[in-house]
């Protein structure tokens, strides 16, 4: 969601907290009954972020938020104009949400040994979904803002052994360092150079 907001040059106020250890007691009741981040309070009178206005729309789910930002900032170009290309971007995002992310979580965050092989398989599948060069569906889009954080982190975590996974070393690293990951990795390195 942050990438979408930044790409759209949206004005927003960030309310940052530790979802696991310091979730404010009003979060579930006033912002997101699902209890998850990211979440967005949109519209209504301007208030302090810890006092969300009852009139504002309360929204959650990363992919819904990314599409919402693309909708309200059409000039951001995040939504591909061509319906076919847009559908392809949504298809990639759906695949990430339902297949990639759960295994990414089990592998890196839960350290489940049984997640290793299926995770490396979804990494392979992603290689097939993405072009060899350029972004996910051509120009930078809703697909890139949704998946780039994972595509950048995967090789970095494997190369530097970050996470709870028990890796088998070079085989895992090789799996995540193929062409389809490179455009996003270069974006990441470009950001570092600018910062
Ligand atoms: N499908 C949701 C998943 C969000 C999610 O699982 N967020 C985690 C943090 S990465 C969370 O808030 N977990 C708190 C909880 O499950 O209690 C999305 O993409 O927004």
UniProtKB/TrEMBL annotation:
UniProt-listed PROSITE patterns: GST_NTER
Top-level taxonomic group: Eukaryota
Limits of the GST N-terminal domain: 1-77
Name of the protein in its database record: GST N-terminal domain-containing protein
InterPro entries reported in the protein's UniProt record: Glutathione-S-Trfase_C_sf, Glutathione_S-Trfase, Glutathione_S-Trfase_N, GST_Omega/HSP26, Thioredoxin-like_sf
Organism taxonomic ancestry: Eukaryota, Fungi, Dikarya, Basidiomycota, Agaricomycotina
Cellular component aspect of the GO annotation: cytoplasm
